[in-house]
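Note to self: keep these together.
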Amino acid sequence: MNELNIVKQQKKDLREKAKAARDAIPDDVRSAENEAIVNMITGTEMYENARHILTYVSFGSEVDTTALIKKALRDQKRVYVPRVMSRESMEFFRIESLDDLERNSMGIREPQPDPAMIFPYDFHISLDSAQECLVIVPGLAFDKDLHRIGYGGGYYDRFLRSFQKRMAIGVAFNEQIVDKVPMLGPDEPVDLLVTPERAYF
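Structure:
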């Protein structure tokens, strides 16, 4: 087995292990830790100064982003959430309410693909600083060097690589933090990792 295949197998094994650990978190613990993560993010000057919030919409046992989305909308941030357009493409569309979302065939909530609401390229240039645009990034496992492993589609790696003027924030329960995430060349780290107890940067 060559090195590439070894890393792919390591990532596959880690995905299974991390998802099982995340699924096993008791509901009451998960609820308290979700609240702690959201409070940690929204209590920062970085969040206060952000004009645009790009965030995944939580599914299953993922860190719940519902409260974060609701607060960002109340705080009059521009909130964008992703929609998978093809096997290679993911786009973010602006929402004004959680009611703007619809469930896809897998049960994941996605925005309507309205061209008028798509995250526009000119924001990449007009932002005065990366901190004005926060991208909340999901993952199955993270390490303290800010490397992450997702579900294997590469959507966030491609998006983060194409858009550098942003602050990418990984969110995870303590059970998802590992010593070392196996990495391949295209894998993109996050800029900040927030857990219920602390942040890594």
